[in-house]
TrEMBL record:
It is found in: Cytoplasm. Residues 126-367 form the Radical SAM core domain. Its EC number is 2.1.1.192. The gene is rlmN. Pfam families: Radical_SAM, RlmN_N. Gene3D superfamilies: 1.10.150.530, Aldolase class I. S-adenosyl-L-methionine binds at G204, E205, S236, S258, L259, H260, N335. Keywords: 4Fe-4S, Cytoplasm, Disulfide bond, Iron, Iron-sulfur, Metal-binding, Methyltransferase, rRNA processing, S-adenosyl-L-methionine, Transferase, tRNA processing. The keyword RNA-binding does not apply. It catalyses: adenosine(37) in tRNA + 2 reduced [2Fe-2S]-[ferredoxin] + 2 S-adenosyl-L-methionine = 2-methyladenosine(37) in tRNA + 5'-deoxyadenosine + L-methionine + 2 oxidized [2Fe-2S]-[ferredoxin] + S-adenosyl-L-homocysteine; adenosine(2503) in 23S rRNA + 2 reduced [2Fe-2S]-[ferredoxin] + 2 S-adenosyl-L-methionine = 2-methyladenosine(2503) in 23S rRNA + 5'-deoxyadenosine + L-methionine + 2 oxidized [2Fe-2S]-[ferredoxin] + S-adenosyl-L-homocysteine. This is Dual-specificity RNA methyltransferase RlmN. GO terms for molecular function: 4 iron, 4 sulfur cluster binding; metal ion binding; rRNA (adenine(2503)-C2-)-methyltransferase activity; rRNA binding; tRNA (adenine(37)-C2)-methyltransferase activity; tRNA binding.
Length: 405
């Protein structure tokens, strides 16, 4: 395994901003912003124009203070500030790996869950792009046996504001808004947007929080704001089959599937949701994914577990199962944690598996682990809610690629 170990930089941030009970305009759709503006007395004929202005300031310019909205009258700015907030989530810690990977521990208010919650968001810079791994839930209701989060209880869904907030925090910290400066020495792509790709692959099953994830991703891909191409947004699911068609129709993102096994008896153990939606049903939903084509392939994630799912027969069966689906396969060397019963496959085994898949015409990159130094330290963040979970590590290591690759 190629694990470039490096020293982490941990930067506790001073004076964090906290979300308050003041309602935020972040994470709302345009009609919802319009409703809020009507609620503070903005004239109906002005609502559309004011909504467009505010949208542009929040998402294209990255402002966090209504006073910076220079084309809005002073009086209206004061009224907006008296009624709403644009505050970001609180950044508890920021860790920077020597390879440039960044991880933020973010804190959100309780919102009825009894106490504030914390989640992690990870940025992975490469030469041609910067990928942000975003969380959708605090904890998870599913119990995948290779995943540490699966052993911890679900706390709550994240709101659309909190999902979008992860993107805004990353762009703030990287200086990825106009007139903002990238921190000296930060590892970022050599050209283009610093956050160019989003993967919904952090904590949680995004299709169990569909409405909030949908709203957040539609905001992320809105051409007058964050403007991320839907080809650069990937939603990863463990296989919530009934929601897969809606993901294509209503969100239009790229799709990734946590497959990890080619037989139902084994996948029942690794990804217990398989008992409800077995492999054949899952792959049928993939075959019919709206917009699927050779230019918009589905990514299948396959974690390499020694003597569990890594034989040549498994590789051949994988190829057979995926026949007819425009696909690529991310082979992920397993990264064990204390107490887990699985081990990572031997490197030769992973390469042999990859060769079989490649010869069948599928791209099957074996991902180089990134940010191992800060991942190793993640348990020490002492998050009140959850520790870094394997799935997020897998996300880092897989670094789902979009089809321009
Ligand atoms: S892999 Fe994903 S779906 Fe499975 S338990 Fe972990 S977070 Fe939940």
């Amino acid at each position: 395994m190629t694990a470039p170990l490096a020293v982490a930089t941990t930067a506790p941030l001073k004076a964090p901003l906290s979300l308050t009970e003041t309602p935020s305009l972040v994470g709302l759709s345009r009609p919802e912003i319009g409703e809020r503006l009507a609620g503070i007395g903005i004239e109906p004929k002005q609502i559309r124009m004011r909504t467009a202005q505010i949208w542009n300031w929040i998402y294209a310019r990255g402002v966090t203070d209504f006073n910076d909205m220079l084309n809005v009258s002073k009086d209206l700015r004061a009224t907006l500030a008296a009624n709403f907030t644009l505050k970001r989530p609180e950044i508890v810690t920021e860790q920077i790996s020597q390879d440039g990977t960044r991880k933020w521990l973010l804190r959100f208010p309780a919102r009825g869950a009894g106490r504030p919650v914390e989640i992690e968001t990870v940025y992975i810079p490469e030469i041609g792009r910067g990928t942000l791994c975003v969380s959708s839930q605090v904890g998870c209701t599913l119990t995948c046996s290779f995943c540490h989060t699966g052993t911890q209880k679900m706390v709550r869904n994240l709101t659309a504001e909190e999902i979008v907030g992860q993107i805004l925090v990353a762009r703030d910290r990287l200086g990825d808004f106009p007139d903002k400066t990238t921190p000296v020495g930060a590892a970022v792509p050599s050209e283009g947007r610093l956050v160019s790709n989003i993967v919904m692959m952090g904590m949680g099953e995004p299709l169990y929080n569909f409405d909030n994830v949908k709203q957040a991703l539609l905001i992320a891909s809105d051409g007058e704001g964050l403007s991320l191409s839907k080809r650069r947004i990937t939603l990863s699911t463990s296989g919530v089959v009934p929601m897969i068609p809606r993901t294509g129709e209503e969100i239009g993102s790229m799709l990734a599937i946590s497959l990890h096994a080619v037989r139902d008896d084994l996948r029942d153990m690794l990804v217990p949701l398989n008992k409800k939606y077995p492999i054949a049903e899952l792959l049928d939903a993939c075959r019919n994914y709206p917009g699927l084509s050779n230019a918009r392939r589905i990514t299948f994630e396959y974690v390499m577990l020694k003597d569990v799912n890594d034989t040549a027969a498994d590789a051949r069966e994988l190829v057979r199962l995926l026949r007819g689906i425009p696909a690529k396969i991310n082979l992920i060397p397993f990264n064990p944690w204390p107490g887990v019963n699985y081990q990572c496959s031997d490197w030769e085994t992973i390469e042999a598996f990859s060769d079989i898949v490649n010869r069948a015409g599928y791209a099957s990159p074996i991902r180089t682990p990134r940010g191992r130094d800060i991942l190793a330290a993640c348990g020490q963040l002492k998050s009140e809610s959850e520790r870094m979970r394997v799935r997020e590590r897998l996300a880092l290591e897989a670094m789902v690629t979009n089809d321009e690759d």
